[in-house]
Amino acid sequence: MLHGFRDPRTSPLAAVARHDFAPEKPLSLGGAPDDDVQLDGVAPHAAVLRALADGFELTRDGKTESLPPSAWVSLGRYTLRLSHQNFPGVVVLDPESPRLRSGPFPIWFAPDPAFRVEARLVQEGPLREQVILSTRGNKRRALRLGELRFQLLGKPMKLSALRLLEPGQGEAAVSIFFRDQTTGHESYPVGRYVDAEALGGDRYALDFNLAYNPACAFSPLYNCPIPPRENVLEAAVRAGEKDPGGH
Q: In terms of Cα–Cα distance, which of 192, 187, 193, 195 is closest to 107?
């Protein structure tokens, strides 16, 4: 994990700039003063990037290729992190970012088997849409799948299960965004995420030892979902990632 955070091709600590697309307007990439995304040491007007309804289109060296809604593009010394989310943008990763050396890096609570639980997904009638806010102020659409109900530390608890209605999200995707009684002092103030592991039928495993911070815990240049109001656990989940600080 720490090795990945030092990798300039993927680490949010390498993020140095963000460029969001204006409607129906491509971004020019290169070293010219009039390039939308200016990259030192890269040829002027080296590439053009367009946001499509369900992905991206990149033109460079006279060739055009289609890219998925979440993709990585190398250009000169830089890596461009493409993110659609229905609010398409480009995050520029630079191997010369000083934060790759200084951090902050991820830190974790000690593993505790008590924080791995089995949950049951309970539907609450027809599936319905729900708006999820994000750290950059966007309102993102999600499908509310129901409630995951489980026992944690001897108490009954529940979390809303969502599927973001965004390009690249599969039909089986289940997103869990949550806060708990450590949020804001021991863990990241925005909240954390935990993956739901399908066990068959309506059963899922939630391993809070694997709860992780969104990328915006390490850089404000990312656009991260904020847990819905109802997803606050009345327990101190001292498992998974802690607040790294430095934000």
A: 187
Integer angstrom CA distances of residue 225 from 12, 115, 117, 185, 242: 16, 23, 23, 20, 18
| Region of residue 119 (left: phi > 0; alpha: psi -120 to 50; beta: else) | beta
Q: What is the DSSP string of 101-160?
A: HH-----BPPP-GGGEEEEEEE--SS-EEEEEEBTTS-EEEEEEEEEEEEEETTEEEEEE
User: What is the C-alpha to C-alpha distance for residues 66 and 64, in angstroms, rounded to an integer?
Assistant: 7
Q: What is the average per-residue pLDDT within 198-223?
A: 97
pTM equals: 0.93
Q: Are residues 119 and 170 in the same domain?
A: yes
- Within a domain: residue 247? no
Of 145, 200, 137, 155, the C-alpha closest to 176 is 145
**Of the candidates 160, 187, 158, 191, which has an alpha carbon nearest to the alpha carbon of residue 175?**
160
In a domain, 227, yes or no: no
- The confidence band for 8, taking pLDDT boundaries of 50, 70 and 90, is very high
Q: What percent of the chain has pLDDT over 90?
A: 94
- Let me know whether 135 and 97 are in one domain: no
Structural domain that includes position 123: 113-217
Q: Can you say how many angstroms the Cα of residue 213 is from the centroid of all Cα atoms in its chain?
A: 9
Give residue-wise pLDDT tens across range 230-239: 999 999 999 9
Is 5 a residue whose pLDDT tops 90? Answer: no
Residue 201 covered by a domain: yes
